[in-house]
Amino acid sequence: MSTLQAEHVYKVFGRRPADAVRALESGSGRDELRADGTTAAVIDASFSVEPGQIFVVMGLSGSGKSTLLRMLNGLLEPTAGRILFDGQDLTALSARELRRVRSTKISMVFQHFALFPHRNVLENAAYGLEVQGVDRAERERRAAEALALCGLEGWEKSWPDELSGGMQQRVGLARALATDADLLLMDESFSALDPLIRRDMQDQLLELQRRLKKTIVFITHDLNEAMRLGDGIAVMRDGRIVQQGTAEDILIRPADEYVASFIQDVDRSRVLTADAVMDVPDADAYACDCPTVSTDTPLADLCAVSARVPHPVAVTGGDGAVVGCVPQDRLIAFIGDEQRPPMACAEVAA
Amino acid sequence: MPRLHLGAWVDSGVDFLQRHLTWLFDAISALVTGLYDGIDAVLSAPHPLLFAGILAVGAWWLRGLLAGLLAFAGLALIDSVDLWSDAMSTLSLVLVATLVTLVIAIPLGIWASRSDRVSAVLRPVLDFMQTMPAMVYLIPGIIFFGVGVVPGIIATIIFSLPPGVRMTELGIRQVDSDLVEAADAFGTTPRDTLVRVQLPLALPTIMAGINQVIMLGLSMVVIAGMVGGGGLGGAVYRAIGNVDIGLGFEAGISIVILAMYLDRMTGALGRHVSPLGRRALAKARSAATGAAKVWNHRPQPAYAVSGAVVLALVAGGLNTFAADDETGPAGAANIGKGRTVSVGYIPWDEGIASTFLWKELLERRGFKVDARQLEAGALYTGLAGGQLDFQTDAWLPVTHAQYWEKYGNKLEDLGSWYGPTSLELSVPSYMKDVRSLADLKGKSAQFKGRIIGIEPSAGAMSILKDKVLKEYGLEGEYQVVDGSTPGMLAELKRAYDKKEPVLAVLWSPHWAYSSYELTKLEDPKGAWGKGDGIHTLARKGFAADEPEVAEWLRSFKLTEEQLTGLEAKIQEIGKGKEQEAVRAWLTDHPEIDKLA
Known about the structure:
The complex is a heterodimer. Chain A is α/β, with parallel strands linked by helices. Helices cover 40% and strands 21% of the residues of chain A. In chain A, helix 7 (136-149) packs across helix 8 (165-178). Chain A starts with a strand and ends with a helix. Chain B is 65% helix and 9% strand. Chain B is built from 27 helices and 10 strands. In chain B, strand 6 (450-452), helix 20 (459-471) and strand 7 form a beta-alpha-beta unit. The longest helix of chain B is centred in the N-terminal third of the chain and has 31 residues, at 84-114. At the A-B interface, helix 4 and helix 6 of A face helix 9, helix 10 and helix 14 of B.
């Protein structure tokens, strides 16, 4: 399996981009550059995505996340830095080699679907295979499989404009899956959908991910989506990655005020899991037959158990052994945004 | 402000090109002529109604039964007004021009869509091509390509190229950039992106461009007719030259019918070839019910094609059997032995009459005669360039002095066959108190101070402005209105019918004198100068190439009675049948046939 790595990647638009990178490396700010008419879209981005992971890049519009994504498959050439995928340095490839990588190893799903209106659903799904030069019967079979995988069986002969937004994006997903690429780049792919449909699509993506073990880089501006999907999350601001880590890392230990203000609206009880809040095991906790929870239980479900159990809830690992416990007060503290232990009355008043 | 000698530079540029790039112009000319002749031969081969049927089947297939019926009716109308072969010539001209235009415009449009720099460079060039008046480059066109269809086609291409390029560029640039990025993201090569994504999606816009190209091409046929392009344009030009409103309308409506047919067909074709259009059509068809189904029924392409092929075969067959009724002159009379002589003429009555007289006379003696109708400037340019052999309507030494001055050293004067002519101002005879130029003084109020003139380039106009008005002290009192011969004749007719005062520049011989009762104003001071003779002019070297013909032309003479009789005969038998009229007239005047 292949790892995707970005090493000190910069992307600067405007005149003399190389000079701008040098200025940024020696500590100039983004605003100073803007005065000269150059825009630093991505500044010194480094990260690594393990095979089979969903890596989410989150940020507001203008933060450089889409630019970053387009450098991962060479649609944009980094001004500086390297992109390594499957042992290859993509920045060193010729245009022809890069096209080969894009057609076979990396595929992409777009925010506004970008389905070809002059091709029916099946022809759209088969597009990548057509580019690869796969013969007609073979590519139609594989495209039909990919469509079935995305729940679109029976819609092969329909036209894109006859489908709802959610179904169109399934076609987009099927088109990306049909080529059997290991890496899937998803550019705000669910942002244009209704909230309910979006949730459906997220579930389906997670389900597909479990079955197909693709490596996915997912761009979003929605932190809830990021937390739901991401094995690893990078938060971008003004072209820089300001924090990287798991959903819990970011929620529990925001790197700065910006990230902290971001996570205010997150439904923590659904994101945080038992292993993030548990304390060292308490001897009382497993002496009885009270219900226990697994480490990946969300706090929302933990609350229900905690309400019925008279003592801290025991948390069990994969082998059934107790690995920790969650006292009620600690649970409450984590659902609020305080990560401090309870204090004396006088201290609280102060 | 210093005077920039832009005109002089262009003149020497044209000279330079003519000297050094003749081979190129000849090659282009040969290619375009070949294309035109080929297409014209195919289009003119079938019987008119059968070919109309073939075109109607096409309309039925592309647009439905009603369109097919209307197309047939329209095309049959063209045939019934005797303009079918003219219409086919025009159609060939437009098709050749469109073909060449598209071969140039679509690649240019694609190139412009992919490069902002190319687009920026092309834009002013296209503006130039589209807005520069066509007559400005038609005359150099004749210098380079000779008279005939080629300069007309080239002018049409220049005029209709811009929308082809622009619409192609626009269509491709309009394709959603997301789709182009998607294609790119799946590793599509730029070439495949063009072929698989951009062109199919740009097709409706490109087809609209093609439609524009054809429409602009049709709008140029009249101008092409002025430089020997023939066809319906020639008919219109002839009609306006003679204020023949009826013929003008017939030729005009034929152009309109062709234009509507081509417009609707290319529009429908656009829907048929574009993937999105095909879907919309299929949807509309499946939604139709009852009577609408019959109207919307389209024959399957296979049936349509085989129907058209069967009709075409029948048409071709008929033509094969019908052909070959031409018989050459027998024995001793066959001096020409099939050699071709090309004659140019300005569509003035005496020009038409003498040209068709000579066409008949020469054909009786074994020559093939190619008679082409041209605008005066084009006629002289073509003669001087050697593309024409002779013309019979040169008014010398006065009226055509400017042409003689410019081209005289490249022409041979074969003598005058009629004369003297005269230039004059004329008024309707109901203006009883105006008899002489001297009578005009103090009467400008009656004429609103206007003298209705003709083309400002005409010799009569400069003589009038520079000499006549001065001699009679009319300067300042009268204003000479520049215009055109048809305009002057139309104004004369209008005023004459309403019995209003009118004062116009005219010349004799002119058919207006037989149509209206007009008074030629006397010129006691002789300010108009002596009259012209109508001369026959040949290209340099013609007399050496065809000594017999030159000898016949030199001995050619007509009296006023003979000329007006011939003109009247032509008027009587009707347009398009000039040669028939000449034959009829020759039976009464066998002495003319002995001339040659």
